[in-house]
Amino acid sequence: MTATLDDEIVDLRRAIAELQRTLNEALAERDESLQRETATAEVLQVINSSPGHLTPVFDTMLEKAMRLCTAEFGEFFITDGERLRAVAVRGVPAAFAEFRHRNPAPPIPGSIAARILSGEPVIHVVDVKNDDLYRRGDLHRRALVDLGGARTFLSVALIKDRAVLGSINIYRQEVRPFSDKQISLLQNFAAQAVIAMENARLLTETREALAQQTATAEVLQVINSSPGDLAPVFDAMLEKAMRLCGAAFGFMTVIDGERSRTVAARGVPAAYAAFRERNPTPANAPIASRVRKGEPFIHTVDLKAERFYGEGDPQRRAIVDLGGARTLLAVPLMRDQAVLGAIQVYRTEVRSFSDKQIALLQNFAAQAVIAMESARLLTETREALEQQTATSEVLQVINSSPGDLAPVFDAILDKAHDLCGAAYGGLMTFDGEAFRVVAAHGDPDFVNYWQQGSIVPPEDSPLGRVMHGAAIVHISDAIAEDTYRTVPALTRLVDLGGVRTCVIVPLRKDDVLLGVITA
Predict the structure, then answer these.
(1) Considering only Cβ atoms within 10 Å of each terminal Cβ, which end of the chain, N or C, has fewer?
(2) SS3 238
């Protein structure tokens, strides 16, 4: 009977021990579950408190993952083109971190990066030292073990719509597999990371769209408040374009005859600005030539790698060597297939502009063309009104001075010079042999010289050309004229009056020359 009682006591103690073990396991599981839920809640709190800012999210997520999975070190990666780029690291041994810094890991077949980028959702290597890549002597796998001390490894991919966004990697420095619950936890963190990244992307896009709309509205406001005055429009447009596109410096240019003229510039390095001052960009420069061939924009990711730089093109060499430019985005100002100019922005690092930034610059270019066209129409309207007003005022003088031509000639010359922006000039009559000044404007010495007697011009002089039937004589640069030194009147015009550009319009009736107006 005593033996039976002892057996029952032993069985009872075993039952109690089993119940205690079960209770301990349940409590441990409860604690682990509570820790996981707490960690998940804390990560969600960081996500909510850092809208659009992913760095604290990644760092918190990695810290929680390592602590709950009892890992010695870890890394958080996001995809950067065809590579994985670390955005958070914790506990990485210094020797391994230095190796990784000096030797970025290429995604070779069988490597962690290659397997993640190929779409594997989970990679769990129980003993990295027993892995095929380690046995084959792969440099990076050897460094992971020999310098980092890693033995067991777990990586979970960040995947959205079958696209790999990155991965969470954690390492143990002993051979000890991660449990299914730990793998599940890391997958949960990866899912949260994807949500945080998507939210950040949407928030960034919303902010960018709002910033672009605001910038467009501000430019339109400048256009409306500066009718006909393009300088503040170009400057505001370039400032907005550079800020929203993350550019270091930029220009707005317009095609002016055979040259490309800068109408706005911001942030241009002094050395390159001085070069541009000495070497105006020709209208047939590579950018303008490409635009004329129909390219809607020019996006050069690395100017230093471009053919023009390698061939020693002075303009392209200067923009790189003096301006420090590496990435270029240029959008033409186009109207009816005609190139009016361009907006050019530059980055001093090799970094592509996004499709949205290209579209933004194209939108600004379209606005610039509208502003230029509006200014042109406004200028033409003002000029037409000024000409009509001047004509009316001259007719009024004629009507009020019957038979007295002096005030008529003076009024005509005054209006002509005012509308043409002329500094000097005169109105002369012609008697068949000589010209006589009847009205003159300009410096007193210039006027006195012109009013001294009649002028019998040589045949090869500007006035001589009018005598022989020229409809208009337009001299762009008097100093460049062959008759500058041989015709005394022209010499005095240049040397005494400082005249450089002039136009002579004949007064004719029935093909008979009656005189000229000069400006």
Answers:
(1) N
(2) helix
- In the numeric block, the tokens 């270091």 are attached to 248
Q: 53 — phi, psi (to 5°)?
A: -115, 105
CB 40 within 8 A of CB 188: yes
CA distances from 280 to 274, 315, 402 (A): 10, 9, 54
Per the listing, tokens 């500066």 go with 226
pTM of the model: 0.56
Closest CA to 410 of 517, 514, 501: 517
pLDDT exceeds cutoff 60 at 139: yes
CA-nearest of 220, 486, 497, 483 to 366 is 220
The Cα–Cα gap between 183 and 498 comes to: 88
Q: How far apart are CA 406 and CA 409, in angstroms?
A: 5
Task: Give CA–CA dist 253/247, Å, rounded.
Answer: 17
- Which 8-state DSSP code applies to residue 130? G
Q: What does residue 450 show for φ and ψ, rounded to 5 degrees?
A: -65, -30
Q: What Rg value do the Cα atoms of the chain yield, rounded? A: 41
Give the full edge-to-edge strand order of the sheet including 249-256: 259-266, 249-256, 338-347, 327-335, 298-300
Task: Find the length of the chain.
Answer: 519
458: left (phi over 0), alpha (psi -120 to 50) or beta: beta
Burial of 370 (0-12, 13-18, 19+ CB in 10 A): middle
CA distance 157 to 161: 12
- CB neighbour list of residue 66: distance below 8 Å, 6 or more residues apart: 72, 73, 74, 90, 91, 170
Predicted pLDDT at 73: 95
Q: Which of 363, 291, 294 is nearest to 330 (CA)?
A: 291
Distance of alpha carbon 255 from alpha carbon 333, whole angstroms:
10
Cβ pair 183, 124 in contact under 8 A: yes
Residue 12 DSSP SS3? helix
Residues 6+ apart with CB under 8 A from 70: 172
Contact between 316 and 306 under an 8 Å Cβ cutoff? The reply is: yes
CA torsion, points 98, 104, 107, 113, in degrees to nearest 10?
A: 40
Burial class (CB in 10 A: 0-12, 13-18, 19+), 517: buried
Coil/strand/helix, residue 78 = strand
The residue type of 482 is: D
Confidence check: pLDDT of 153 > 90: yes
User: From CA 64, how far away is CA 300, in angstroms rounded?
Assistant: 43
Amino acid 162: pLDDT: 84
| The token pair that represents 69 in the structure block | 């999975």
DSSP-derived letter for residue 249 is E
Average pLDDT, the chain: 81
